[in-house]
Every structure is written in C-alpha cells, then in structure tokens.
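Quick start: what a row looks like.
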Amino acid sequence: MQKRDAPSKRVQFLGLVVIISVSATIFGCRGDKPAAPVAPAAAVATTDAQPRSKQQAMAALMALPELKAWSSHLEKSSGGKVRGALIEYDANPKLIDGKRYFQLSFVENGADAAHRWESFLVAESGNDILVEDAATDTTMTLDQWRKDKQPLARISAN
C-alpha cells in the first residue's frame, strides 16, 4: 500500500472554504431573514482571567467597523449574492509571546467560492486582535493595520 503525504495547509484551507461555502449556500444565506445582530464590542470584551469562546472572538471581529463596512459593501454591490463571512483557517490556536490566539479570516463568500480578504488573530484571553500580513509573514496591531493598509479604502475604491 502506498503512503500519501498529508495535504498542505493551503489545500486544507481551500477544502474548508469549499465546505463552508456549500454549507452556507445550502443552509444559510437564503435572504428570507435578516442576519443575527452582532454583539457590541463591549459585550464581547474579556479579561485575562476569563477566556473567550470562538463565537465571542468572531463577534469581536465582526464588531470592527472595517468588517461591518466590508460585509455591507459585499452584500449591496452583489445584490445579496455575496456576503462577508468569517472562517477559522486553523483550529489550533497560534501562540505568540505566550498568548493563544484564534486564527480567523474574513472572506468574500459567494456561491462558487470564498475569497480571503484578511486574516486575523484574536486573543483567547484579553482584547487583543492582530492582523496577519501575508506579504511579510508578520503580525500587526489593529492601529498599525488601519494606518498602514487603510482597509476602508478597499471598498471606497470599488
């Protein structure tokens, strides 16, 4: 029997994106009901003593003004055919300076595929949210990201 190598992270990510896209198309995104409201950022804040759940981490991300604007833009410009979504691209927490982070990406979720816009690291404890810079394989704070990448310009240029 021939031994196969484990699929690369990219292949695993693409497989996950396909599964999520198909699931969202079949079970959600039907347009017949409004999206559930996102909890305000203060409601998802945590302390170092109280770890946050993955759902709380996702709510904290979706409460960011940039992700709200991106989601709204995608839905409006596509007539509801494309939506913004969050996916976990690695179930294992990333460890940075002794702190564990959920690994989540904001994607443009269409009927045929999901396209990654940005990847985030959300602290399991505390309120830290970092942005991964794929070009340099580094992380940056939200403030750095807003200053350097100007994420809201992404939708104003369209």
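That is the whole record. The helical segments are 9-27, 41-44, 54-62, 65-77, 142-149, 153-156. The two ends are 52 Å apart (CA to CA).
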